[in-house]
Design brief:
By secondary structure, the protein is α/β, with parallel strands linked by helices. The chain folds into two domains: about 170 residues, 3-Layer(bba) Sandwich (FAD/NAD(P)-binding domain); about 200 residues, FAD/NAD(P)-binding domain (3-Layer(bba) Sandwich). The chain is about 30% helix and about 25% strand. The protein contains ten helices and 24 strands. Helix 6 links the parallel strand 11 and strand 12. The longest helix is centred in the C-terminal third of the chain and has 23 residues.
């Protein structure tokens, strides 16, 4: 048996948690006497990344990924599909590399129940999986009817388009059918929710679509359940420059909170009783942790999952880790890149615990690019550490795009956005 020290583990795990670069192969025989089984539920940015990196760090671990969809359609860049810049195939990816390159067992089925005492996961197809460690990365589910009249059926008329796929294409078709001079309404939820800058990038690319398709008399109204939003000054500066008078933002204090949706009347109503009629209405309902997290008792009264923010182990069930949008991860946003970062930290924690090693000190990263126009990008980045307050941003590390720059700078940020997208997807699968 080869000798493998804690120092060796920290060396390779540090690479995994920081950058995700390099080949991280650990002699797992040195870490555990018996072959361990890890089940990962959810094949999004968090789950797929975690499954891949467990295998890279410890090839002796049997890793099974449970994901109901046979292809992964990314929420990042889905607004470019809505805005007519890309096609749905451009943001659709296969799980084949996880199987072929990394030896992850991928099962396309739905996890319906978790028995934390017996350490089993039941699948919709009837199969029962046993695990030594379970990672749950189920994304989000919508809280239907929190906005009166807005349920799953209503979303086929007022699409949310917040889970990429058919809804993305539905909203795109509605924009294509809208006549010049029409109005599109976006209903943005209160915090927390998946992809904080997403509604405002969507408004931007809708405006670009109208501007470039001869629908210049059209208008976009954002009805917001909050008084400030991610990258606000950067978005507003871009709107004033590129789409003057086309985008109107209504804050919470100005009556932006929507309480009722009427699909027959094609309107929404705010908490002051004022109604907005529109040709296209995009309602993004409130979120909570994904369905399986709710069923398994991993979520608390907040609707989200409390975790040990160092290891992402659930505070409610032992040997169950929760990552991504469902987790209460301190100051980390509910973003794709953050989920991937959490996946690497969680992978390190799982490998360390199965091997009887102390978890190395983690660090966490988030970067996020948004389009204001096809050639106008903005971004934000942050590095996080564990403090007595949980996951906290490191002062002076990261920041946002500068406000006063020339067009070349914004053009380059749009180019970097594509690179950011390609690298995050590659980090999941390649």
């Amino acid at each position: 048996m080869s000798k493998f020290t804690r120092r060796d583990f920290i060396k390779v795990a540090g690479v995994a948690t920081a950058s995700g670069l390099g080949t991280l192969v650990l002699p797992f025989g040195a870490l555990a006497k018996t072959k361990s089984r890890v089940v990962v539920i959810g094949g999004g940015y968090g789950g797929a990344t975690c499954a891949k990196y467990i295998r890279k760090m410890a090839p002796g671990i049997d890793v099974t990924l449970v994901e109901q969809n046979k292809q992964f359609v990314t929420c990042p860049f889905s607004n470019t599909v809505i805005g007519g810049l890309k096609n749905i195939k451009d943001i659709t990816h296969s799980y084949d590399n996880l199987k072929k390159r990394h030896g992850v067992n991928v099962i396309h089925d739905m996890a319906t129940d978790i028995d934390a005492a017996k350490k089993t996961v039941k699948l919709k197809g009837g199969k029962v999986l046993r695990y030594d460690k379970l990672v749950v990365s189920p994304g989000i589910e919508f809280i239907w009817n929190k906005i009166k009249g807005y349920d799953q059926a209503a979303s086929e008329i007022f699409p949310h388009a917040w889970k990429a796929g058919p809804q993305t294409l539905l909203l795109r078709r509605q924009l294509e059918s809208m006549k010049d001079g029409g109005t599109a309404v976006i209903v943005a939820p209160a915090n927390p929710y998946r992809c904080p800058p997403g509604p405002y990038e969507r408004a931007s690319l809708m405006a670009n679509y109208f501007k470039t398709r001869g629908k210049t008399k059209s208008k976009i109204i954002i009805l917001d359940a909050k008084d400030k939003f991610s990258k606000q000054s950067l978005f507003v500066n871009g709107w004033e420059k590129l789409y003057p008078g086309m985008i109107e933002w209504v804050s919470k204090s100005a009556g932006g909170t929507v309480v009722r949706a009427d699909t027959k009347g094609k309107l929404v109503e705010n908490n002051n009783g004022f109604t907005y009629e529109a040709d296209v209405i995009n309602v993004i309902p409130p979120h909570r942790a994904g369905t399986i997290a709710q069923r398994a008792g991993l979520a608390d009264k907040s609707g989200w999952c409390p975790v040990n923010q160092r290891t992402f182990e659930s505070k409610l069930h032992k040997d169950v880790h929760v990552i991504g949008d469902s987790a209460l991860a301190g100051k980390m946003p509910k973003s794709a890149y953050a989920a991937g970062s959490e996946g690497k930290v969680c992978a390190s924690a799982v490998v360390a615990e199965l091997g009887g090693l102390k978890m190395p000190e983690p660090s966490y990263v988030n970067t996020c690019y948004s389009f204001v126009a096809p050639d106008y990008g903005i971004s934000v980045a942050a590095v996080y550490r564990i403090t007595n307050k949980g996951i906290t941003p490191v002062k002076g590390a990261g920041g946002g795009s500068p406000k006063k720059v020339d067009d070349t700078f914004r053009n380059m940020e749009a180019v970097y956005a594509q690179g950011w997208y390609d690298s995050t997807v590659a980090d999941m699968f390649d």
